[in-house]
Input
Amino acid sequence: MNAREWVRSWPVYRQLTGEDKAAKAAAAKSRRSSGLRPRTAAADKVVKSICPYCAVGCGQDVYVRDGEVVQIEGDPDSPVSRGRLCPKGSASLQLTTGASRRQKVLYRPPHGADWEELDLGTAMRMVAERVVRTRRETWQDEQDGSRVNRTMGIASLGGATLDNEENYLIKKLLTGLGVVQLENQARVCHSSTVVGLGTSFGRGGATTFLQDLQHADCIVIEGSNFAECHPVGFQWVMEAKARGAKVIHVDPRFTRTSALADLHVPIRAGTDIAFLGGIINHVLGTGSHFHEFVVNYTNAATLVSEEFQDTEDLDGLFSGFDGESRQYSFDTWSYEGVSVAPASGQRDQTRGGGADDDRRTGDSGHVRASGRGEVHGSGGTAMEGEPQRDETLQHPRCVFQVLKRHYARYTPEVVEQVCGIPQDTFLEVCRDLVENSGPERTSEFVYAVGWTQHTTGSQMIRAACVLQLLLGNMGRPGGGIQALRGHASIQGSSDIPTLFNLLPGYIPMPYAHHQQGLAGYLDADSARKGFWANMDTYVVSLLKAYWGDAATADNDFCFDHLPRLTGSHSTYDTVLEQLAGRCKGYFLMGENPAVGSANAKMQRMGMANLEWLVVRDFSLTESATWWRDGPEVESGELATADIGTEVFFFPAAAHTEKSGSFTNTNRMVQWHHQAVEPKGDARSDLWFMYHLGRLIRAELADSDDPRDRPVLDLTWDYPTEGPLDEPSAEAVLAEINGRGADGAPLTAYTELKADGSTSCGCWIYCGVYADGVNQAARRKPHTEQDWVAREWAWAWPANRRILYNRASARPDGSPWSERKKLVWWDEAAGEWTGYDVPDFEKGKSPHYRPESGASGVAAISGIDPFIMQSDGKAWLYVPAGILDGPMPTHYEPQDSPVPNALYGQQRNPSRLAYPHEHNRYHPDGGSLGSEVFPYVVTTYRLTEHFTAGGMSRWTPYLAELQPELFCEVSPELAAREGLANGGWATLVTARGAIEARVLVTDRMAPLRVQGRVLEQIGLPYHWGPNGLSTGDAANELSSIVLDPSAHIQEVKAFSADIRPGRRPRGRARADLVADYQRRAGITDRTGTGV
Amino acid sequence: MTDVPADPAAPPQRTAVTGDKRRRGRRGRRGEQAVVPDAEFTSYYGKPVLNKPTWSARDIAGYLFLGGLAGASSVLAAGADLTGRPALAKGCKTGALVAITGSLVALVHDLGRPARFLHMLRVVKPSSPMSIGSWVLVAYGPQAGLSAVTALTGRFTGLGRAATVGAALVGPAVAAYTAALISDTAVPTWHEGHRQMPFVFVGSAASAAGGLGMVVAPVAQAGPARRAALLGAAVELTATEVMKRRMGLPVETLRTGRAGALMKAATALTAAGALLGGLAGRRSRTAAVVGGLASLAGSACTRFGIFHAGVASAEDPKYVVVPQRERVAGAS
Amino acid sequence: MSVDHESMDLRDLLTSDDPPGSGGYADPPPRYGFFTDTSVCIGCKACEVACKEWNHVPDDGLVFTGMSYDNTQGLSADTWRHVAFIEQRKPLGGQSGAAGTAGTADLGMPAFAKPGEQGGGARSEFRWLMSSDVCKHCTHAACLDVCPTGSLFRTEFGTVVVQEDICNGCGYCVPACPYGVIDQREDDGRAWKCTLCYDRLGAGQEPACAKACPTDSIQFGELDELRERAGRRVEQLRAAGVTDARLYGHDPDDGVGGAGAFFLLLDEPEVYGLPPDPVVTTRDLPAMWKRVGVAAGALLTGLAAAFLGRS
Ligand SMILES: Nc1nc2c(c(=O)[nH]1)N[C@H]1C(S)=C(S)[C@@H](COP(=O)(O)OP(=O)(O)OC[C@H]3O[C@@H](n4cnc5c(=O)[nH]c(N)nc54)[C@H](O)[C@@H]3O)O[C@H]1N2
Ligand SMILES: Nc1nc2c(c(=O)[nH]1)N[C@H]1C(S)=C(S)[C@@H](COP(=O)(O)OP(=O)(O)OC[C@H]3O[C@@H](n4cnc5c(=O)[nH]c(N)nc54)[C@H](O)[C@@H]3O)O[C@H]1N2
Ligand code: SF4
Ligand code: SF4
Ligand code: SF4
Ligand code: SF4
Ligand code: SF4
Ligand SMILES: [Mo]
Output
């Protein structure tokens, strides 16, 4: 720069010679400022992606420059998110590129005090070797004379954070290896959703999609903290509100959702069935139901067997209960003149599942069927025979009248007594719902895990189903039941499950039976109705996808390659297997049970009893480090040197580092594209599974042991690409989609064949790769489509967004109203048409009536919108498929401070209890000792953190927003117990004691319940001792006690005590808990009665 | 921040009524009437509305003091030169140079990025007292330096004299502009005092320079210094009193706490220095030195007092919210 | 040039500039700003995080405050968007923009009674306010006025931005800002605050915080248009029974000449930690300079007079 230029660049010169005399603008602008360009504009490429946190599935644009991700922000084209991201989505850049990401494989030898570094290849070979060894050592050909072909020595947990393709490979390989203890977050999160919705409607997914919320006239958010847990989805509630909808939030706490609602209804945790039952009673009692809808589209008119006895008759029990096994037999629940059977595995179904004594002793010696309800993730229970109907709904044994009697005692007074909801508030909700339902208006229910995680979880959801059906709000715009699911792909990990009881597409895993072949399993000869009748095509195509050419008609398409179940092998049963020393190897692939699962201590004690543990995650979660710094090591209960578990830590690749699909909360499969290569040893789970499979198969290649056939016969030849030999996720998606005889991708599951000519990895996903095009990667901007945005990604089934949408039209096929039209019959064209893909055979006229004796799809009449159900109707009353009763009934939570005000039966009689020295329960509410735990704790989430914390506690931008565990208490409780805002409190249950900072807030309100004041304590569950933001884990307090149908734990309501100050350290902590147990008189039998 | 203090029964202070009990208790010294009645007001958990100055007291209050001292000393030095008081002249010139050097060091030291000191000269901004001050210092510093160096070395006396006169002409600006510097902020005590602050500052500067003169010059030559101290003290104390009376609520910050103590000390020291030095100093060299030091200390206390009062007024939302609320109420 | 005009120019120089249009930019774009509608804020803090990600702002320390859900406490050098949480025993008011429930909603909160004591009635008076605060990008910006280096400057978009290559950390802007926005970052020495995403604006992109905001509580756009929109929104809310709704910082006649980032609030500004009636400090600067001149003159003459004596 010469002197002249130098002077000219001097702002004083510019100031004096230019217009900006004051030197406040142009003259003061620096050279750097003049050259500023946003890094988004300077990126080499923008890669389309999906947020890896929650199931809203917000679109992301990933900006890459010089091989590095430089920015991640919302994709404005997405119809779901419209470019917006909540704090977690906004922190994705830090999550994926931040300093807390691990990049090296770590290894902890048995009894080792510290980590060692290990070469990735060596570690892979070691894991493969251990899998082969443990499998061989623990192999079971038979159990009790039935063939099981499996190993109980290995288990795997995790999948909801993973891609569908990854879950597919995990299930495929581990099933080939004979591993049945395969679970993911879906179990602990929303398994009861699948049961509740599936048995009611025929499919276990949310019945609608987020954008449709804008059309609701009234939105009841109950059991969900929508604004905090699905913030970007909440924009659609705000849209509805702006259009005049009334928003009601029913929640024990006043949350950020309540703050934006028109009405907050405080409720005692765990009493939602009483509340919803009260509304059902109001609707039935005032005749406010949507008569035409109810008569035609539900089973209200169907007659129930004479043998059926209600809880009214048996003080809280239904007929058919066996106190010994604590199970119901469904015989007396069935329809008049019909035997209702499961869609498959018939004998399993009717046996039920339920608590069995061996689970308590940890001895799973007998063949039991479990988790059957979840089979209804797609397809309801099958029936044989013609049900009798009374279209007048007057017959005393028609479902409508049965329902009316069942809920008659759920009066406003009872609701007030049980839930603590003032009657006028309750009646306001009733009024709002009734006023906003009918031909012209619709109301929508939104729930999440505030409902699912109870011993009555499935039934809470069922109660909402019943109510929405009575009000005629199903299948219609602005109606339905919005199940807000959890992780980015938790819906996917249920659809393409890493769950013990399911094969892809909600096909049940077979149980061990004597000589049961494929035919017996399919029960193909029985006359069944609905789409589930085609199950043989789904199953055979799946077997072809797994075992390819090895699967032939002659060998039952390798049906016997599938390992067999003998009872519940849920994640909680696995913990007991670990404690019993039978389960020796454990894969944790993106799950953190040491914090996130109920009774965290038992989770860790189980892991301490393993031979080997593989953890795949971004950072060193508590599940990876418990052997050196877990609470038991601190308290001296465990000594690191005594722990023989060998621990492998593999750094996982992030969503930006791999391609694959996530299925969002509304069954929408969205593809995210790889933006960059993972660093160091980080690899995708697809890579891990594929190469692990390769190594294991290589090791067994020469084996002629028939036990090794299932794994050696697997089709395992995915093309790899890129510098890291990454298997092609698209190739896996193509396999999931399915191929015809010519090898060409299929377009719909209706093309599947049972003769082995088609293959399909997951029948409900058939069509996602139609025409060889990745439909999940479709990204036509929402601005260029109608509000349904059908050309954005792909939703199962068949790209439908609102399920059962045939019900949006009258029986005659015309819309109920202009305002609420969605899908209707076009007489001229002779087909169903509308905004959404009709959830009905396109050409089936509303006037079609099946001939008597028709079977399969042909048996579905023109007025049967619930095509997966065997009678085409939605079920107000569920004669089979749900294990704890045909109609939702209020029971108290396992650990409740109060007695059941409705029935003599205190708790859900068929809940699954697991008495164990580390899993003690509290005395019955109202009985001696229950006063030791006088308060109700409810656990939940905060906007700023994510689940067990692996994706937020290590992320500084999120950690600083909620830096420590805290509990929320009312000013009254604070005064009573001497708790100071900002100070410390200790919370105690029979399982553990934790400390938390105190947040005193009016948002926690004491309730009046049964004549006493009841205090609830709020406790977010995101914390553990690792990471930047730390605290005790809430799950040190919770117990393992499960919903019978879904095997989901009760962490939303349990009694506890609270006291000021920090918890004791070391041994004294356990002493405190023991002291409480003593004071409450707790024994191994406490709380375990029926 | 620390935990919110806990009254167990109380929910978190959602709308804190921070009339601050401690301070309220101590207020209302005998003879002083409360300027405003106890204020009830709302704030956000008692959090300050303003961000408090990040300036360090030593650097910036020190700078205010030293700048004043230098500026006024330069005037005294020139007068001494012109009236043939060589010792006073030399002392004041040296003092001015030391003071201005010290003040510059403090100023640069306080910068977050000291290496970018010269960025002060990127622009000339009349709206920024600090910018104007920088240019004034550019004009003043070299002259003060030249003046002192020539006096100390005895060389280039002609140049020295010109520089001395120049420094004397710019000096008052150096002493006075700092009043605008701190008043031109949102800090309640500083801003509300903006009308009197220049007089407080020049008074304080004169008092300090007078003190310096009394210390460095023999009694015979120190007459103007004594008068400067007296005059300065009178102006400072009067202006301060007027300022306090007109300030409104934030005046509390000048009366209480650390700032209150400093202001009290300032009054005492300044008055004592002026009386002792200005009157007794006529006869006694000891009295002159002690008085001079007292004046210097008094001036420093004034600057530190005002500085701390400002910080205190920024830290308590009361001083922002209450006067503004009253203004709004008055307007509507 | 008339004397009058001259003095006006001087006044302008001394006090505040007049955005936009002036400032020496050829063909400046319209003035841009924010309208933050706190009545739809869900307190998610996406704005805080998005801002940090975009601007690489370091975290602000992990401190549990006990102040509702606010653990970042206020705007600072390391927090350029800050979400306030206020729990109040006040009725909610119909919040919905349209028909919905007008008037006060009964929250159905149970009575405020000590446990064991008589319950009943309803704790109906409760609401939880959330509001995202940011630099106001004042029309008359004190920070910018007092900045001695020209580090702070007014951009062609009418926004107020610190230039990180210029700021020498003199700290003057910090006490100058009447809203407590700008602050010095300790380990870095420089002053930092919201830039209204100057870099993004230059490329026609929306600021990061506004883009992220799930409920459009933060609306970005041309200031004139935003003011109209805000006016309509307030009327709509009031009509729906939210009588507390008011605008803050929208008025060009206020003490800072109107804020470039203004707000719809549901209570008095100080409840949110905002000053009720902020005034740009430089409004009084001409008076200050005048008095500084008088005082300097007085010092000169006073000290000269001190030489008049005999001793
Ligand atoms: N920010 C954030 N978002 C998330 C997650 C996260 O960790 N953080 N996790 C994701 C996952 S995995 C899931 S499953 C979803 C869960 O989403 P949500 O279900 O909304 O999450 P929770 O906070 O666990 O529970 C919701 C609400 O249920 C209330 N509640 C508790 N017990 C009861 C009850 O008995 N009855 C009623 N009516 N309400 C009750 C709680 O007070 C809480 O407000 O969120 C997903 N999104
Ligand atoms: N008390 C109580 N307990 C609860 C709940 C409750 O409400 N209350 N909620 C329950 C619910 S709904 C859920 S879903 C669970 C959640 O509990 P967890 O699933 O145990 O919790 P996360 O922290 O989500 O664990 C997922 C892990 O996967 C890692 N991860 C993310 N992406 C990948 C990837 O691509 N590959 C691999 N290998 N790892 C990845 C993350 O870093 C994280 O550590 O908690 C349950 N537990
Ligand atoms: S966490 Fe959920 S709501 Fe938030 S950005 Fe990601 S997908 Fe969207
Ligand atoms: S709010 Fe403060 S920092 Fe922002 S422009 Fe105005 S004066 Fe400057
Ligand atoms: S600290 Fe930086 S931005 Fe602030 S006034 Fe000083 S130079 Fe300007
Ligand atoms: S406009 Fe940009 S810099 Fe300002 S708060 Fe928003 S994101 Fe941060
Ligand atoms: S992003 Fe929007 S909704 Fe969330 S806190 Fe910020 S302003 Fe409120
Ligand atoms: Mo979940």
Chain B has one domain: 55-323. The first helix of chain B runs from residue 21 to 26. Chain B has twelve helices and no strands.
